[in-house]
Design brief:
The complex is a heterotrimer. Chain A contains 13 helices and two strands, in the order αααααββαααααααα. In chain A, about 70% of the residues lie in helices and about 0% in strands. The N terminus of chain A is likely disordered. Chain A is mainly α. Chain A is globular and about 50 Å long. In chain A, helix 2 runs parallel beside helix 6, helix 4 crosses helix 5 and helix 4 runs antiparallel to helix 9. Chain A has a two-stranded antiparallel sheet. Chain B folds into two domains: about 190 residues, 3-Layer(aba) Sandwich (Rossmann fold), CATH 3.40.50.2300; about 160 residues, 3-Layer(aba) Sandwich (Rossmann fold), CATH 3.40.50. In chain B, the strands form four sheets. Chain B has a six-stranded mixed beta sheet, with helices on both faces. In chain B, strands 8-7-9-10 form a four-stranded parallel beta sheet, with helices on both faces. Chain B is globular. The N and C termini of chain B lie far apart (about 70 Å). The relative contact order of chain B is 0.13. Chain C has a domain of about 180 residues. Chain C has a two-stranded antiparallel ribbon with strand order 1-2. In chain C, strand 1 and strand 2 form a beta hairpin. The N and C termini of chain C lie far apart (about 45 Å). The chains are: A mainly alpha, B alpha/beta, C mainly alpha. The interface between A and B is large, with 78 and 56 residues.
């Protein structure tokens, strides 16, 4: 019982958590004045994507190897909604999330029929199918992508074309996604997920329909990945095949692995690290370094950055 | 899988996130080198981008495919051509030094437009040249218009750049899909190739080439029997070629370029397409492709180019100079286009004494007729289309060729006024009717 | 259907069969490795690419032609596989098999990236060997001799592998070790060594496929990665541990892809995955697989 997080809090801890949240928000607000806003925005979107992915692997124990289909799929949906249908950004993003959630429902329902490696292989196969669909579909314009996506005016009065305003919006989106995951983990639902990960047979014997829980977690993860993808498309104002390609799915696994699987802040750390890597290197070099990091992490660094720090400092993180 | 990792969330995890974010962001504060990957805008207000040249110099950006299927057509050869132009112009213009940067767009529109944006915002680039791959060119044309800079396209082919997607900041230089179809396409139909089947690469360029060629074929009494599309960068053309073969069309037209064209032609030989009586046409072919195929495979092919290194004394002289810098490889019409467009640009900037207003520079360039050793006499239309002669060539047989790179024999010259689409027909909103 | 359409259909199916040969060879290697090691070898595609590059390198730098390459390349790739297994994979057996998947994925990235840096992303051409040039007119199409050779030799190799695993004593040891390694070890058979050799053999098959593929699909760093995902789908459809299943499914799916190209071309890339989804619904263990948890 002691390893399952409870949602109750002692008063002292309550105050410190809020302090830390405030500090985090403060730092992230100041950051764009020190460094490149577009780089930060990309990292925030990828961090949200990785957190969504981590929800599945860290807390339910399912390695989805095709998560790019949700991020990229929502990206295409939002881009189309914003450019062709002229929807304002908030509706375009919501549409993207809806598409990702429906996709998550279908893929999840199919994939959950198997466990372990089979589950991963199925998600990979289905993601590749989605990739080819997007490559051929006329509305995506294939290799050309959907270009010149308008950022629009949020809620009718916030103009997102200004980089600073856009950054603020992305930050808020990230915090919302982050908080949702936090609340899900710290809830009875989250507790059941952890139980399923630890011992699915036991959870079933306690009366939980584990398939339903897994499916809901999958859809939630897909929807949050969709939120990240839709926001990213508005930042860069184009949607391309890169975001639904299997290398993107591999990247999110890498981020979570570097940061620490199953650690709450692991994927965020990993997203910034991988973002910095891609900023500094080019082309083939990125692939090699990512490969080396994969191998090294899996062999000797399975805890990831956050996990290793946690063990070194002897603090739970 | 992770049964032994604790999941307790603590405040310290937040702090850790922040530290990591701060560290990584701090590490990325430095300006990236010119030819690195997707661009990020410089630190600053985040509002309107920094205007014009970076403090009294002219920066030329050569954006090309440096390592992929089109690398031999543009690539580092384009950088060499740009350097030659700057050197021949004298190294400075209107008292300002000239700098060249280069980048690899990897044939991806998102990478290309990111690099273009970054160059305009943080490197003070005034003009981007080359850019093969039409999907990238269209994206860069949009960015260039937004930032009021100049875009001189030599690499990409889609006639949309001077058609519906024309821009007051873009000039399309070396060739386009309409000109290719009009030159080689018309020649083939007139010689009896009146039924066509297309093998089209599935992106902006392939579609544009197929559409333009279809119009020419039908206008000259031919018929298009069908089309099969293949993904960009295909290795195995067998199933597409067999489709084309089974159509029994007299002409199998390859609406693709570079490595894709080479692959298709080589594999066509395996399936006996030409030996069984069908004619193969590479609608866009460069001398680099013929070199890669070898004369035994390429002999007899009909193609159209706007530049051939061996055409006259002037082109020969320039090409030898180019070859000396490029391991003896002869320039393609893209390389020639980069040289010619940069020269003309510098002339315009010299007259205006400034490069800050992209539209003004382009208007000046359009107002000045051109006469350079590579393309001869030419003009530029209001829709940004550079006009010069196109040439229809046939690849020599190994017996006819007397030296390496002696590959073409001239069939016909199409004079400048007929070689390119009339502005009135282009559908460009900039053209007053 | 007109004569023209029938001949096109037959021609596409023959081509599909040739593609299927590659699927079969690759999924065979994967199935063997998975059967004994419980490892999903993501590096299989990259090792296929390596096999092709070794053949190209042998020709380009050492003047060694196709026929010796057919033997040398698989040996080199197999050797590399043995080194990989000994140094890296072995450490992860006691852990969740997903870690092995991630490790092999990392190896695949390293291989692909190194070749990308060296050779760029466009392909290097590899000439069809002189003896196999030309073609035969079989009525509805001209069948290139080389492609016919690929089909025949893959079939032979696949059947030989199946025979060894299914009908020989060595094969029975392998299958027993899959079921119960501890017991087999107790009988005095060196199971870890058998595992290492098996991995080497599995990837050697991939390297062999690479040499076969070099003249058809010009040799490029990316030639393995998209193909391997299709092969994973093939293995899921056939049944993860079944050798005969992966052979039959490989060839069959190649033909189905060819058929789709004529009947419904837009779906030709996705038909394999759609079938995978279908099989998962109806028979989750795969067409030839045994029911597993």
């Amino acid at each position: 019982m002691t390893s399952i997080p409870t949602s109750g809090r002692a008063p002292g801890r309550w105050r410190s958590e809020y302090t830390v949240f405030a500090v985090m928000i403060g730092l992230l607000v100041l950051a764009p004045f020190i460094t490149y806003p577009v780089f930060l925005m990309k990292c925030l979107c990828m961090a949200l994507f990785a957190c969504a992915f981590n929800l599945l692997i860290g807390y339910v124990g399912l390695l989805s190897f095709g998560h790019a289909m949700f991020m990229g799929g929502a990206g295409y949906a939002s881009a189309h909604a914003a450019k062709v249908w002229g929807l304002p950004p908030e509706l375009a993003i919501l549409f993207g999330i809806a598409v990702a959630a429906v996709l998550g429902l279908v893929v999840g329902w199919l994939a959950i029929r198997r466990q372990g490696i089979y589950f991963s292989m199925i998600t990979l196969g289905l993601a590749q199918m989605i990739f080819f669909f997007f490559q051929k579909a006329s509305f995506t314009h294939g290799e050309d992508g959907i270009q010149a996506v308008p950022r629009g005016v949020l809620f009718g009065f916030i103009d997102l074309n200004d980089t600073t305003v856009m950054y603020g919006f992305v930050l808020v989106v990230f915090l919302i996604g982050f908080s949702i995951i936090y609340r899900v983990i710290h809830s009875p639902f989250g507790a059941v997920l952890t139980a399923i990960r630890e011992n699915e047979v036991r959870a079933t014997s306690l009366g939980y329909t584990t398939d339903h829980y897994k499916l809901i977690a999958f859809v939630l993860s897909a929807a949050l990945a969709g939120l990240a993808g839709a926001t990213k498309v508005l930042v860069f104002q184009n949607a391309s095949l890169t975001d639904v390609h299997w290398t993107m799915s591999g990247e999110v696994v890498l981020m979570t692995l570097i940061g620490g699987l199953g650690r709450f802040s692991g994927p965020v750390v990993g997203a910034f690290v991988v973002g910095a890597l891609e900023f500094k290197l080019r082309g083939g070099q990125i692939t090699v370094v990512e490969g080396v990091v994969f191998v090294v992490c899996v062999l000797v660094f399975r805890q990831g950055i956050v996990g290793t720090l946690s063990t070194a400092l002897k603090l739970p993180l | 899988m992770l049964r032994h990792l604790p999941t307790r969330i603590a405040d310290r995890s937040m702090v850790l996130t922040l530290c990591a974010a701060a560290l990584c962001s701090a590490a990325c504060k430095k300006e990236p080198a010119p030819d690195k990957g997707p661009g990020m805008t410089a630190p600053g207000s985040g509002a309107a981008p920094a205007p014009g040249a970076g403090g009294g110099k002219i920066v030329i950006g050569v954006l090309s495919d440096m390592s992929g299927v089109y690398a031999d057509l543009g690539g580092k050869g384009s950088v060499i051509a740009a350097q030659m132009a700057v050197a021949d112009f004298g190294g400075t213009v209107a008292g300002m030094p000239i700098e060249i940067v280069s980048g690899d767009h990897q044939n991806k529109a998102d990478v290309g437009s990111s690099i273009a944006r970054e160059w305009y915002d943080t490197k003070g680039v005034d003009v981007i040249v080359d850019v093969p791959t039409s999907s990238v060119a269209l994206a860069v044309s949009d960015v260039t218009r937004d930032k009021n800079k100049v875009f001189l396209v030599s690499g990409a082919g889609t006639s949309e750049l001077t058609g519906e997607k024309c821009s007051p900041n873009t000039i399309h230089w070396a060739y386009d899909t309409w000109a290719l179809s009009n030159a080689a396409g018309r020649e083939i139909v007139k010689n009896g190739g009146d039924s066509w089947y297309f093998v089209t690469v599935d992106y902006a360029f392939g579609h544009a080439l197929k559409n333009d060629a279809t119009k020419i074929v039908e206008a000259n009494g031919g018929k298009v029997l069908g089309e099969v599309q293949h993904p960009f960068k295909t290795a195995d053309f067998s199933s597409f070629l067999l489709q084309a073969q089974s159509s029994k069309a007299k002409v199998i037209a390859l609406a693709n370029a570079g490595g894709d064209t080479i692959g298709a032609i080589k594999q066509a030989a395996e399936f006996g397409i030409v030996s069984k009586g069908q004619q193969l046409v590479g609608l866009l072919m460069f001398i680099a492709d013929v070199n890669a195929l070898g004369l035994p495979t390429a002999q007899g092919l009909i193609l159209s180019e706007s530049f051939y290194w061996d055409r006259d004394d002037q082109t020969r002289a320039w090409s030898q100079k180019f070859g000396a810098k490029d391991d003896g490889v002869m320039p393609t019409m893209i390389h020639a286009g980069v040289y010619s467009s940069v020269m003309h640009y510098l002339k315009a900037v010299a007259e205006l004494k400034s490069a800050k207003d992209g539209k003004a520079v382009v208007a000046k360039m359009e107002g000045m007729p051109t006469d350079d050793p590579l393309f001869g006499k030419g003009t530029i239309d209001a829709n940004g289309r550079k006009r010069h002669s196109m040439y229809v060539y046939q690849v020599k047989t190994p017996a006819e060729s007397k030296a390496k790179w002696d590959y073409y024999k001239l069939i016909r010259e199409v004079p400048a006024d007929q070689a390119f689409r009339a502005p009135a027909d282009s559908g460009c909103p900039l053209v007053k009717k | 259907m007109s004569n023209l359409q029938i001949s096109n259909l037959l021609a596409q199916m023959v081509l599909g069969l040739i593609n299927g040969a590659f699927y079969a060879l690759l999924s065979l290697g994967l199935a063997i490795i998975f059967g004994l090691l419980n490892v999903i070898n993501f590096a299989h595609g990259a090792l296929f690419m390596l096999g092709a590059f070794i053949a190209w390198g042998l020709l380009h730098y050492a003047g060694v032609g196709y026929w010796p390459a057919l033997v040398i390349s698989p040996l080199v790739v197999g050797g590399l596989g043995i080194v990989l297994e000994r140094t890296l994979l072995q450490r992860l057996y006691r852990l969740d098999p997903l870690y092995n998947l991630l490790l092999t994925f990392g190896v695949a990235l390293i291989l692909q990236g190194v070749f990308q840096i060296q050779f760029g992303s466009s392909g290097e051409p590899y000439e069809i060997p002189q003896a196999l040039k030309g073609g035969t007119d079989i009525g509805f199409m001209m069948l290139p001799t080389y492609r016919a050779w690929v089909m025949i030799v893959s079939l032979v190799v696949c059947l030989a592998t199946w025979y060894v695993t299914d009908r020989t004593k060595l094969g029975s040891y392998l299958r027993a070790a899959t079921e119960n390694p501890g017991l087999v070890q107790a009988f005095g058979i060196n199971v870890p060594r058998m595992v290492t050799v098996t991995y080497g053999l599995g990837v050697a098959l991939a390297g062999f496929a690479g040499v076969l593929g070099a003249p058809i699909f010009s040799v490029s760093p990316e030639m393995g990665s998209e193909r391997i995902i299709v092969v994973f789908a093939v293995v899921v459809i056939g049944g993860m541990g079944s050798i005969m299943g992966s052979i039959v499914t490989g060839f069959a799916l190649g033909m189905i892809e060819g058929l789709t190209k004529v009947v419904y071309p837009v779906a030709s890339n996705t038909v394999v995955f759609a079938l995978m989804a279908l099989v998962l619904l109806i028979r989750p263990a795969g067409l030839f697989g045994k029911a597993s948890p």
